[in-house]
Amino acid sequence: MASNQDLNERSLYLLKSLVERYIHDGQPVGSRALSKDPNLKLSPATIRNVMADLEDMGLIHSPHTSAGRVPTVSGYRLFVNSLLTVKPLESRELDQLQSSLLTESDGPGEVLSKASRLLSDVTQMAGVVTLPRRETIALRHIEFLPMSNTRILVIFVTDDQDVHNKIIHTDRLYSPAELQQAANYLNSMYAGRSLSRIRESILLDMEQNRAQVNQGMIDAVTMAQQTFAQQPKDDYVLTGETNLMGFSELSDMERLKQLFEAFSQKRGVIHLLDQCLQAEGVQIFIGEESGYRAFDHCSLVTSSYSINDEVVGVLGVIGPTRMAYEKVIPFVDVTAKLLGAALNSK
Amino acid sequence: MASNQDLNERSLYLLKSLVERYIHDGQPVGSRALSKDPNLKLSPATIRNVMADLEDMGLIHSPHTSAGRVPTVSGYRLFVNSLLTVKPLESRELDQLQSSLLTESDGPGEVLSKASRLLSDVTQMAGVVTLPRRETIALRHIEFLPMSNTRILVIFVTDDQDVHNKIIHTDRLYSPAELQQAANYLNSMYAGRSLSRIRESILLDMEQNRAQVNQGMIDAVTMAQQTFAQQPKDDYVLTGETNLMGFSELSDMERLKQLFEAFSQKRGVIHLLDQCLQAEGVQIFIGEESGYRAFDHCSLVTSSYSINDEVVGVLGVIGPTRMAYEKVIPFVDVTAKLLGAALNSK
DNA sequence: TGCTGGCACTCTCTTGTTTAGAGTGCTAAC
DNA sequence: GTTAGCACTCTAAACAAGAGAGTGCCAGCA
Asked: Which residues touch strand C (CB under 7 A)?
């Protein structure tokens, strides 16, 4: 058994070179090819010895006897963690990013779509952006419109100019006038505050028996919170899925189907992305690391993005394990920062 | 050259039988297999003669010398138009449909999604439903909220309880009070009428120099119309795309990619579906008939659906040319009617 | 005239075999 | 510790052969 001490500088350089070559041309890399590396004046035989060690350590693996070696998940992991030389963004790409995201115009929804499209267009893989999910969203404006029976259409505008609407069911019948009054009250008294604080506030007022507060107000806030709670916030914008169909490692139809099914179920993907909400900076899942079968042959490069220093969402790129990490990582990083900036300025 | 007179009852029955067999097991059908048909007491040799005629007429086609025959697009077309024996819906399916669609609860958006999901779940192909697009939509409620500079958030509730919102840019700055006033005026005076009629009305009032009408009102309606005009109505709900990955005739990765790209572009698909808006009843595109390369190996079974006798949208099923038309056609038909009914009752 | 049995033919698909090429592991020598 | 050499293994491509399916056509029969 080879110990970690065998991981001297030379073996690491060899691993790095191997991973880079494999990422570049997708073929298993043999000792002969590596021996051509000008920085590495070694014969194929020596390289074979080193590769045997790397294989013992589970960093590379041979598809069959007479093929070269291919990085394993651990190999990629080591590569990404310590060997990678990150390529800074090309200025052309940076320009494209900035001009696309920072033009003040459309609503938040459009900005997210643009970001996702950028991620997929530039990397030629799939781009994903989760909808921003703020802990405390303040009320900007609320409206209750009666529908048939006990159904009420609640329109809820948050202070980030996002419009939510939801049909809710109430226990009793409310008259249009009642609804109007409740909305007016909430709009005039509590705009700018978060829902939970509004609720607290009203309860307090009620205790103190203020005249203008009544059960209706409570109901109204409950409705509003309902609207918000049920809002399908577990959602994301995914673009460029079709790019993934070009990769040979995903050309297996059964695998591809599972992957696309995961995309439309959304649950699993969201759950995976949520794990990146906590983490600072760029987070990477390689192959089976994600824990989701559908992503076994994919890697996920993600970064959280923030509005006003509050982490609200995650964006990233989904592609085959064999991807150009050195370009994707900085790109995801910058995009996340720019998206945050774009949403800040709203 | 064989003339149409050769299309006697026997040849037609043979074609029908051939198409049915091919649809059922996906293999080219040979003369020997067809000779086993109990209603058709003919030797393989005779059947071969008839099949040769059918091939001359371009109704069937042989992939290679020693394979059986496969229907061409014309063959499918003749089959669908005149030979098909439609299978009525199974009561289980009808129950499922009714209970899913006719439960009064959620907004129109959810109903459309449910319809689409039903289409894909039952047929195990892809289901599509275009968003309803009414010629004249009446105003239920409107709200203008100021954002930064000359940007205004318009919230527009139509009488079918659908909420639209859009950020528009105006020429000059409007004060919150102005916006409030405009919205109040529109809501109180014109709720229930269509936008174009509101506009006419206001212009008329202005000519007659009524006191309460001013340029602001005109601007308000213009804004409202803008909101509505720019609304991306060229949209649909598509579900079960992944089902399509199971079909061998779509297993070519390049084709599949084109198909999925068409799905996400949306333009072409919408254009195709629009052609069904005019038509009464179920409309079918078989293979290349659609005119879109991406759909060359697909068939599309569609039907328009109506709200209050006004045709507003199209729904349908997308699958391989080799699909069970006799089941899909009645299913699409019924679903369209039920969806109309479900939306009517709102 | 229309149907049928027979037969030669064609094409695909599968299987087995061979060969070239690539890459390895091991060993002995430097 | 490094290297050259060599036997070995495995894949991929090319080729051959045979089985199977289905056809077209022809001659004979009702």
From this structure: A 28, 30-33, 44-45, 48, 51-52, 55, 62, 65-69; B 41-43, 45-46, 49, 64-67
